[in-house]
Amino acid sequence: MQDKVKAFLVSSDASIIDGIRSSPGLQGDVEFVGSAPGAEEALGVIGMLRPDVVLVDIDTPAGPNAGIISTILAGAPMVTVIAISASSEVSSLRQAMIAGAREYLLKPIERNELLASVSKAYDADRMLRKLEHGAGAVSATFKPLQHKGKVIAVFSTKGGVGKTTIAVNLAVSLARETREKVSIVDLDLEFGDVALLLDVVPPRTFADIARRGNIDREFVEYCLVSHASGLRILAAPGRPELAELVGVEHVRRTLGILKESFDYIVVDTAQSFSENVLSALDTADVILLVTTLEIPSIKNTRMCLDLMKSLRYPEEKTKIVVNRSSREIGINPREVEKTLGRTVDVHVPSDGRVVVPSVNSGVPFVMAAPGSAIARSIRDLARSLAGTREKTRSFALPGFRFAE
Ligand SMILES: Nc1ncnc2c1ncn2[C@@H]1O[C@H](COP(=O)(O)OP(=O)(O)O)[C@@H](O)[C@H]1O
Ligand SMILES: [Mg+2]
Hints:
Elements: E1 5-10, H1 14-21, E2 30-36, H2 39-49, E3 53-57, E4 59-60, E5 63-64, H3 67-75, E6 80-85, H4 90-99, E7 103-106, H5 111-132, H6 136-139, E8 150-155, H7 163-178, E9 182-187, H8 194-197, H9 206-211, H10 217-223, E10 225-226, E11 232-234, H11 240-243, H12 248-261, E12 264-269, H13 275-283, E13 286-291, H14 295-310, E14 318-325, H15 333-340, E15 346-349, H16 352-361, H17 365-368, H18 373-386
Parallel strand pairs: 1-2, 1-3, 3-6, 6-7, 8-12, 8-13, 9-11, 9-12, 13-14, 14-15
Antiparallel strand pairs: 4-5, 10-11
Helix pairs in contact: 2-3, 7-18, 12-13
Bound molecules: adenosine-5'-diphosphate and magnesium ion (MG).
C-alpha cells in the first residue's frame, strides 16, 4: 500500500489552519502533519516532520510575497510547494511559480481542490525525484550524445493559414514514414492547440521546463507526452498567463537538447516574430513558410522573406508552402511565385471534408484519411524532408520541387 502524502501548512491565518485541520478528506491519502506561522518557524520543524508537500500562504499585510516560498525551498529543497493566496493577479501567480511553487490555489480553499492539488503536485515531483536519482530507464530512450536531429519550424506571421494543421500532420507522418524519433514542440505558447489536435491531455508542458532552473535531457524527456503514432509532444502551457514563464533561453536550450535526442523536431509557432519564435527560427534547419492564396497572406509572406534575408538565413533554409491551394479559387500560384520572387515548394490542397472531422476527433488526417489528396501532400513533404527517395503521387498542382 502506498504511504500517505504528508502535508504541512505555512500560514498565520487561523481560519485556514482550522479549515485544513478539520478537512475530513485529509484523513484519506493526505496526512496533515503540522503548521507554522512563517517560513523561519516552518524550517525549524520541517526537518523533523519531513512533509512531502508544503502549502504556503503567501499573503502578508503588504500583499502577496513569493519570497516565503523561496525561503522554504532554500532550506528544504526536496519539498513540493503549493502556493495559497487571495490574489488572482497574474503577477502573483507568476512570482509564485518562478519561486518554485507547483500549484497555485486561490482562497477560499475548496477541500476537493486542495486534495487534488496536493496529490497531483506530489505525484509530479515524485517522478522528478526519481529522475534525479538515476534515470536509466528514461535516458535509454535517447539517442547517443552528439546526435544532431533536423529542426523543422512551421511559420507564418498570419494566423489561420494552417500552420498547426500542417505541423501536426507532418510530425505524425514523419514518425510513421521514417520510423525514426520524432517530436513536436508547440511554440504557440499562449494559444497552442497541438495537444488538442492529437487528442492528448498533457500532464506536463513547456511551463514545467521554464520553471525548472537546470534543464537537462532527462527533464525534457519527462515533460514530453507520447502519441499513438510514436510521436513525442512538448505541449504549450495550458494557460495563457503561464506562457510568459517561457523565455528565449528555455527555447534555445530545449531545442538544443531535443536535437541531440530526436531525428526530427517539428516546431509549430505563433504568428509573431517574438523572441521565442525567432530563437526557434534561428535554430531551425528548415523553415516551412505557410501561406494561402489570399492577398494579406501573400503580403505577409513577402515581408517574412525580406526579414529572413536581413537575418542572413540562406535562401534554401526557407520552403514556401501554399496551403488550401486550389485551382478554382484564390490567386493563381504562378502569380504568387511572381510576387514572392520564389518558387512554391509545396502545395497542400484544401479539403474541409477531411480536415474538419480530423480536428474534431483528434486523429490527424494522415492517419484518419491516408488516401486523401491532402494526406498525400503532407506525406510527400515528410518524405522530401527525410530525404526518402520513394515517392507517392504528389498533389496534382505543378511546382512540387522539394529536392534537398
Ligand atoms: N488544407 C486545409 N483544408 C481545409 N481546412 C484547413 C486546411 N488547413 C487548415 N484548415 C483549417 O483552417 C483553420 C486554421 O488552421 P490552423 O492550422 O489552426 O492555422 P494556424 O495554426 O496557422 O493558425 C482550422 O480550422 C483548420 O482546420
Ligand atoms: Mg496554430
